[in-house]
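Why do we care about 3D structure at all? Because function follows from shape, and shape follows, mostly, from sequence. That is the central idea of this module. The next example makes it concrete: a single protein chain, its amino acid sequence, and then its structure expressed as tokens.
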Amino acid sequence: MRSAVLGWKRQRTIAALQELDDYVLRDIGLHRDEIPLIVKRMQAETLPRNGSTSLKHQHA
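And the structure:
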């Protein structure tokens, strides 16, 4: 279930960033084709490092 939740959050974030126009993406330092990789990296950096499977501390 944890994997499904993380996948759903990743897809939601990607979709939100894809909706931004190119000017806004450039302004925040992103290129459209980098969005999936950037989101994956961001998600990996926010996962608990102690092996916990709890998602309670994460924010949407």
